[in-house]
Amino acid sequence: MPALRIAIRYLLARKSHTAVNVISYISMAGIAVAAMAMICVLSVFNGFSDLASERLSLVDPDIRISRADGRMISDADSLAGAVRQTAGVTAVMPVLRAQALAVYGDVQTPVNIVGVPGDYCAVSEIGSLVIDGEMDMSDDRLLPCALLSVGTAMQLGARPSTEHLMCLTVPRRIGRINPAFPMAAFCTDTLLVSGVYQTNQAELDNDMLFVPLASARRLLDYSAEASSLDVGIDPSADAADVAGRVAAALGPDYVVADRLRQQSHSFRMISIEKWITFLMLVFVLLMASFNILSSLSMLIIEKEESLRILSSLGAPLSMLRRIFLCQGVLVAVAGGAIGILTGMILCLLQQHFGLITLGGDHSQMSIVTYPCNLRLGDVLVTSAVVLVMGLLSGFISSRGVRSGTLQMA
Q1: What is the pLDDT of residues 60-102, one digit of tens each?
Q2: Last residue of a domain, one of 234, 261, 288
Q3: What is the DSSP letter of 86?
Q4: Domain range for residue 119?
Q5: Torsion angle defined by CA atoms of residues 106, 109, 114 and 118, in that order, rounded to the nearest 10 degrees
Q6: Global pTM?
Q7: 240, 261, 282 - which closes a domain
Q8: Is the C or the N end of the chain the one with fewer CB within 10 Å?
Q9: Same-domain status, 102 and 168
Q10: What total number of domains does the chain contain?
């Protein structure tokens, strides 16, 4: 293609005006830096998303079933038995959630209680996050035990102990209230603190505590009800497929959510932040592409005589314009290729060696280096944006060539 060959010659040849060379190099450098930043930023957001997914997987079950209208599942125990017959399901645990007032010594604080069966670790790895004591949700103890989040433990000043008791108080759900005896309007249960867990997630660490399911039902005046059913599946099974089969069996009255859907708001926020940042970097890339317009405009002025000779030799106007269209694409592609390659190398180094660390006290952090995950899709998207910017810059600049003369568009 003659236009491409001439464009390559114009790109590599030394210009008569040094400013044209300088602006061309600045154009390539600007595109390279913007492309490198895109790759690095998108990869870091991927790393944080993967980190959030790993953290959530330790707490949330593979599948969670709840009523579509938000009400209690009245026949939770029998429904759990029916769900357990689904292929790929290994365990189904009724879970009861409510709010209560926790009192420990002279300190009290509102908490969210989660009542779980004794073998709840079959569907969740919450037990592996215990940092003090142990998780004991068995019903055969004289006093039931509670597993506190680190935030709840700090607010109450509580630690695992058999010498101090914790009280949970909730408004009575069933029965009439006697104004002459207002304390009868509340139900209270006494528990031991068996352990403290930490997930490094504010919504799970601030005000939650786990108690045995039987104790939660007794405290809240429930018998076989549950807020949700937490389901564990076979490691070799696909969670989405199993969730689809369960949803088909239960019908529209129930919401069946896998891990991603359970925490969709968290992943949605990370995704929104990622692509907003990407759009900001696209704007930076757009600003950098104006340098291409400047360099091409100056090149058109410098090559005025050459273009007139080509026109005299029979080169059509469309070919002359294609020369500068190709020139713009070459500058953008060269700069973009350098930037993308550099960004990929940096991301791979960070991904495998963790060269850049987070600021602050590392002893208080669950991770000390920026998480990074390079994905082919991000590389392709960045490459497409760079190519489009090059085409746009070359097209606009090529409009300056009119009827064999060199005029600024």
Answers
A1: 899 999 999 989 999 898 999 999 999 999 999 999 999 999 9
A2: 261
A3: S
A4: 61-261
A5: -20
A6: 0.69
A7: 261
A8: N
A9: yes
A10: 2
